[in-house]
Backbone:
């Protein structure tokens, strides 16, 4: 941490900061420039750090500059070669293969989930996504099938050699979910629900942590840190669109976050072009862009009959659009040194 | 809801939308303009509404336009005269008096909380704020004193004729908080934690609901709706700053949200100039601006020794700065037809 | 400037930066912390500065931190007591009086501009605003009356003891404007039109410089710097709303920019609640908030018949709404140590 | 256009709007829903349209909804097959080939520009970029070589079979530029400099129009409209990053704007990953993403010695990094049905 003193800061003001730095157990290094003085803080981090931060409003201080990243376990330097997360059944996230999760926004019926599972599996998906407990902006919207939905997910996944990823909204749901689920998804709205993050840190289940709509990358990594601090290192990050002034699409998918996170952290990073755009016809170009930028995986909404979906139909692909998209990214992946799973058997033209 | 069809939409595409609207149980009204056709949806709201929304990606549809607000219980039309929320001890939010809550970010010790309670009470505050359970971006930061903090808060408030407002982070904390607390605060990061909102809807405790950093006003009102749908109508909204490209201050306090919310909803609206700016020297001008714009209350961080605060010291006022600010807003309130409580006895010049 | 080196930066990488700093004519000061090294740059600023900045992508560099503000002439330290700008006829911007400019978006006819000038003058305005050359987002919208509009503005202002402020869009318009205008307004879209700024710097006419929709405060001050570097120090800044994710109103009026600019610069700062909100019924609360936050002036759109205005009717006040607003801010100004001009003679209730 | 009336709007208020619509020369169609009334406006667009818009603040009106796009000449429907812009020497923008422009931020010397021109040409670039007149945020930064720079650009381009693209900042520069330049670039800060746009509309020179930092896509297309309205249809759009809350990189490159613009307009769209990220190591992944998303071209900063560049060195590629990137996108282009020019002769490994 550095204190950037105002040009007109008095010696008394500078000395006050130096004294407080020492009281907090750090050393102070002064750089006296022509226009202003900068005070560097050196020493063991963590002790009374909040007191140091409080000094940023002290007289004579222009601002403070944080030098160290506040995240540690998720930092690239902890594992420079990158993390690989083994989900079982040979599915490894963060390796050479780009892993694709696909399925409906919500589980609606046995028929629906089996239908979609069969089709996305054929096309090369490795995980089946589908919500059983749905976070909805309005209390008057469909809230999900609950545990019945979990059972159907598991059943459909097993039948089609897929793993299951689904959203957990509250610590109280973890227990019921564990037997059915391979990856616990934390939604964007819950990225800073610290009770939930801590509870997931106490499991050994892989977590797909979505970036909040207005979360910085540092905040995303700090949320990963909450999970990892509990001993669960199986964290997969997910860029799903940020909120900007541009409201033509639902969100602005921050593709650059992919290489940025690759630089800062060893954790794998997925992209969600479905929520990231909110429109079916923009999903494919953004999925291709994410792979080209280096994403480790994609999570995509697919529904057998999007016009009759109980939620997110507007952004769900038809199954054969999904199969087509898989072919496109299969062609792009080698350009960035990656692969995509082959289709399991010929995709039927069915729509 | 309206379907705005593309100029080049075919009759077949238009007919498909009309047919689907009828299948969903609504009437369709066509307006055929020179350049394009608009299809209005009329009828009972709510049934298969998500299916209608899914049609916005259908061929020939440019976009859909939502006409009705999705919030109902919180809408101004439900109570055109505005809500008044009686917190007890004669404190009514939403009336003529602008209510001020003040206190430290976190309860740190008996001495600290008693000291600050005495001083803010003298200056005219009606509620004592202070965190016992702290949501912190980093897992390595101070996380609060827990129930011991609640006890100290209650004790200090009672001694100084104040009510207590403190943050609840998880449904599991509600039970322990109820005996100590007059107003449950939902923090910005939890604004869309629906489990928490629903649990608060089942109590009869007043709730101070903070706007999320990137939440639209409609989303804030929908979160209020979650609480109210459970039967708890005692909801106080709070503008606390949004995230924008401008990072000179921690957040951009959206003062215009105050009159906007006044127009859309009957619920009272507070402003939090401490989190809304993140710097001590900007708190007073923004508190004045909020009152001038019509806020029903303020929530302000005050600490007896901000430089040694365990959190948020940078934005906490010294007690006599707070007393000075109270005098400033006492002069402004009449210009907007409001009042501020008198000082209880002369404020000591103490810093 | 400081170089924040990565934790894993090698000695070779650090030495490279030190060598380059010296080559560029500066001294390098190292602070070696536990986790990383910071290199401070000390010396005469300006020389080869861009080369230093280019090093921020060099191997081993995490990022660079700029310590000094890049603006100089506009910095508070140049004139700690604040600038007062004398516009003539006793109108001084930046003094005790809050100065109000009012009038229609565009001059439309002699009758219109005389009508509105008489009414805003009575209510206490000191400047008449009105566009003669209009920047319009669409080439198909009304583009203004040109020089005829300037003549009408001058005539109406003179008759009602007002000064004239109007927008200049291009250096080629300055010559024709000079005889008619007291304050040249630079619109938000032109805030970084450097040719225009430089040309205005060569005049001695006061300039009202509006903040761009996505300009940081530092960028606004750098644009002021372009004008001042030419020798024209009569610059009045103006906050007029920034673009954020929240699109309920046209813009988000950044009230906090007022105290922030007061801290960073000696230049006076106005607020434009008309463009800042885009809706008539939000103008008054935001005008009040701006005054309460310390604005030196306001610029407000007023039209005798907003429903028939050729532009911006949606946000224009009716003349008696304006008179009412003037009374409100007359009550607020003393609370912040300011005054507002008295009504010149009783305001007629006329709407 | 539609008027969305408030639920509580009176018949008188509704009738007023209907009457005003008719006065303005349009028909009014009412849709009376259960909760509210919507009034559709039908008829010839353009006449008194601003008066209609002014009604959005009238009593009883919730808001107005614009249905038609305000841009016409740039709309996809004008040329559903897409525009191809022939720049000469066989370079066609908007065809099967993805066109790459490359070169330094600013022309600094004959040696520099010849060196970089030779290298980017070999690697497959078709245009040479380089600034002669530089828009700089600070008046104290390097402002470009002026006409001498133009001559050097032309010379270096001709020698290496490249076309020239360079930025024009003011209408007064057009004349001097015409002989030297193949594509006139309008920078992000000038996207709404209407005098400049109009002046370019009167030439027949191709224009590369960059999106403003906070411009919506509709605004970008309206700026294109200013140029096209003058008769110059050779407009190439360019996404170069928008300003968001996330400041880790200089801008957020809005990759989704590429497919969105492809849907709305027939004009070709480039991406600028150099300004869009501001960091050398993020240029390649974002360039790949842009091609994968369907961009018609790229504009990339390349400098022979970025650490000694007079501007933008931090984001300039080394020549062999550029050659490597060209190879990467050469592998991606076929996956989206496109091609990239071959290297002209083997690229030397030179850095």
Residues:
């Amino acid at each position: 941490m550095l204190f950037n003193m105002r040009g007109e800061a008095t010696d008394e003001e500078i000395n006050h900061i130096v004294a407080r730095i020492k009281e907090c157990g750090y050393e102070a290094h002064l750089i006296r420039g022509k226009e202003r003085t900068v005070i560097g803080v050196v020493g063991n981090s963590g002790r009374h750090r909040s007191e140091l931060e409080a000094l940023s409003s002290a007289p004579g201080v222009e601002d403070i500059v944080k030098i160290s990243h506040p995240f540690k376990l998720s930092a690239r330097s902890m594992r420079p070669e990158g993390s690989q997360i083994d989900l079982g059944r040979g599915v490894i996230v963060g390796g050479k293969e780009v892993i694709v999760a696909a399925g409906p926004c919500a589980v609606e019926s046995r028929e629906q989930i089996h239908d979609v599972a069969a089709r996305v599996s054929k096309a090369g998906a490795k995980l089946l996504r589908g919500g059983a407990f749905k976070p909805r902006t309005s209390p008057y919207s469909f809230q999900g099938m609950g545990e019945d939905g979990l059972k159907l997910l598991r059943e459909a996944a097993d039948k089609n050699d897929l793993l299951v990823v689904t959203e957990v909204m509250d610590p109280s749901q973890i227990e019921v979910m564990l037997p059915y689920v391979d990856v616990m998804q934390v939604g964007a709205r819950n990225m800073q629900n610290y009770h939930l993050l801590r509870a997931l840190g106490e499991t050994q289940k892989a977590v797909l942590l979505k970036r909040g709509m207005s979360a910085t990358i540092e905040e995303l990594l700090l949320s990963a840190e909450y999970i990892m601090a509990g001993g669960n290192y199986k964290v997969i990050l997910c860029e799903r669109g940020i909120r900007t002034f541009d409201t033509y699409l639902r969100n602005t998918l921050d593709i650059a976050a992919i290489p940025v996170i690759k630089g800062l952290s060893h954790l794998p990073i997925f992209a969600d072009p479905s929520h990231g755009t909110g429109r079916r016809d923009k999903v494919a170009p953004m999925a291709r862009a994410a792979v080209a930028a280096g994403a480790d995986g994609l999570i995509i909404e697919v529904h057998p009959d999007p016009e009759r979906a109980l939620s997110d139909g507007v952004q769900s692909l038809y199954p054969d659009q999904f199969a087509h998209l898989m072919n496109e990214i299969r062609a792009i992946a080698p350009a960035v040194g990656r692969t995509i799973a082959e289709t399991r058997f010929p995709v039927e033209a069915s729509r």
Observations:
- DSSP finds eleven helices and 15 strands in chain C.
- Residues 11 and 60 of chain C are 9 Å apart (CA to CA).
- Chain C has a mean pLDDT of 91.
